[in-house]
Amino acid sequence: MVHMEKGSNLEEAATTLHPCWDAYRLADKRESVVYLNSFSGEATTIFPSTLQIARGGILADAMGLGKTIMTIALLVTHFGKGGSCTSSDSQASAVANYSNHIPHKSPNTSKKSKGTSDFSKLLKFKAPLIGGGSLIICPMTLLGQWKAEIETHVQPGTLTVYVHYGQSRPRDAKFLAQSDIVLTTYGVLASEYSSENSEENGGLYSVQWFRIVLDEAHIIKSSKSQISIATAALAADRRWCLTGTPIQNKLEDIYSLLRFLRIEPWGNWGLWHKLIQKPYEEGNERGLKLVQSILRQIMLRRTKSSTDRDGRPIIVLPPARVEIIYCEMTAAEKDFYDALFKRSKVKFDQFVAQGRVLHNYASILELLLRLRQCCDHPFLVKSRGDTREFLDLNKLAKRFLQGGKDAIGKESNILQSEAYIKEVVEELRNGEEGECPICLEVYEDAVLTPCAHRLCRECLLASWSNATTGSCPVCRSIINRQELITAPTSSRFQIDIEKNWIESSKISVLLQDLENLRSSGSKSILFSQWTAFLDLLEIPLSRRNFTFLRLDGTLNQQQREKVINQFTEDDNILVLLMSLKAGGVGINLTAASNAFLLDPWWNPAVEEQAVMRIHRIGQTRTVSIKRFIVKGTVEERMEAVQARKQKMISGALTDQEVRTARIEELKMLFT
Fold first, then answer.
1. Which cellular component, as a GO term, is one annotated location (predicted)?
2. Which of 19, 363, 485, 579 has the most CB atoms in a 10 Å sphere around its CB?
3. pTM of the model
């Protein structure tokens, strides 16, 4: 990593012909060579090399192999701060640096290059840039862990650390530049990027950072998302992406990382699409080979099976036993499931007959959601939030419109138009489902914001930087937590679940396993994607006197830290209930040695991320991973879908196969 930061690979890059250019020898002059850019049409006689502007790269070691520790070692080993500079100096040097590292134009070429980087569009901030230390950006869940790891592994007094978080955080550039390491979250960064005026910018954007580190860097994979644009706009000399999954779903995920790293010319979407994305989607290996040649120079990727030069494993971890537990439904559960399945299949078959499967994709996901939840516990099928006050949707519409008037004070400036409100209410009245704009899954415990946007409760609260207020991810309106309305359908549970408690077959098997582990004192984490299922699990755990804690996306950063510390340090707490959304980022939970994945997730990488919270550096005991599947249900068929998804991630399917896969998968699930 030190080698990459010092830029010692520049010599090799300077002698490598840029992949966008072809060399042609002039027929009349054997010594002369003309270089032609096949994308822009430019010609030059100067050798167009490929050089990276920013120094750094992608640390893509598999989860649990110590990316955090390696980064801290880099912070200590190769440390420095940039000097103060004015806005014009800083931007001029950045642009000059950029210009020096792209193919040169010949003096006779007047045509403007189409190959310039998109990053030049991002240099919008005009405030003076002050030289600072290292900025580390991570999910909120990991803020405390980064601080604790630095304090544990760095000699006291060596580096100063400041956590830039919370409503009262200072925006003064000189204050931020004083600390050797500044820790912040993606949420804070997005907030400062969107709220600051481009003419009078402050905060994180007023500092020329010595180094920027993105932890869980796949968070910026969507190139058009605000957080991806916000990270790319930061000024820095050295840049790093830490992620165990640089490609999560598609090859395009890499583009955002290269744009942030300033690996030219691949920060330009036109070049990326023409030379990499399009050939790859058409099944041409050229696109994939080009990506591999780019990543070979800038990415370090090691797994648990990697060996050193002498053939020895680079890391020795205790074994991890993965076991699939197939549960049998009771007769009553099977009757309930079969009735639900038949009803769902009739609706699905209607969509197939009409040729409108993908047009009704969200509705079909809702049908599948109910079937999947039924496998956990029949109570979940009708689980929704407490909304009796707003079962009259006309009252709800008035509440939205009145809220807009109260917030703005002028009827002409209502937050949302009356037509939009009517549309939202009509969707609710018709029982129409959709996708949460954050997790892109069917709503789970959906809430409505005062600006009439619908999101999963956990997704929304997890996106805020504090527990009580935050902005709407859709329109950036400021919202108070007490203003949220649970999306009106029926009550969270239609019956008194305490009074009428019945164990489902899956819960019975789980409880038997936990009872067997109780005497050993080993800790267990129960993962589910539904917070309502975590609610249900609390009942039998309490009745059987299991001491447990819970961690989901509704907890703020301080609450999460407290839960993790308590679970790690208290020997009496044997069980942690955790939602997959909260557990999918780099939390270190090596105090546990048992993982129970209670329901399958569409993307197998999400399950893998959750498990790696336990089986990682620091684990001293054999790890047991149990995946629960109910026999003869949609859960069994989801295993085949996961295998297909794995092929998509590895690039084994062509783009045409990817397009048709969704319909084939749905048909498979409804057979």
1. nucleus
2. 579
3. 0.61
